[in-house]
Amino acid sequence: MPRIRIDRCVCKQISFTELLEMTHVLGPDIDLIALSTGASIECGTCRPWLQKAIATGEAAFYPEADSLPDGARLLAHFGPAD
Fold first, then answer.
1. How far lies 52's CA from each of 1, 6, 10, 59, in Å?
2. Which of 32, 34, 56, 73 is deepest in the core (most CB within 10 A)?
């Protein structure tokens, strides 16, 4: 399976880069960021990845789809890495 590009809230079309910039104003509170933007609320698929972005400061993740238990679903949701 290919690598997945996880770098945004697909439902709200907000990049993790944009969301990380918000932590400079709102702090690293994922619930406050979610309530302010709607990111990670609609379907929740990006929430663990957004939490990881906030914790690490990284704005994109490229896991191998077959290395994750739900890799096929994540690949369908986020799409392949270029």
1. 23, 11, 16, 9
2. 34
Given a contact cutoff of 8 angstroms between Cβ atoms, the answer to whether 11 and 47 are in contact is no
Backbone angles phi, psi at 9, to 5 degrees: -90, 110
Contact (Cβ atoms closer than 8 angstroms) between residue 72 and residue 65: yes
The Cα 61–Cα 34 span in angstroms is 19
* CA distance linking residue 80 with residue 26, whole number of Å: 31
Look up residue 20 and give its two tokens.
Answer: 């990380």
Question: Domain 8-78, what architecture?
Answer: Orthogonal Bundle (1.10)
pLDDT, tens digit (0-9, with 9 covering 90-100), for 28-80? 999 999 999 999 999 999 999 999 999 999 999 999 999 999 999 999 999 99
- Give the C-alpha separation, 80 to 31, whole Å: 28
39 SS3 class = coil
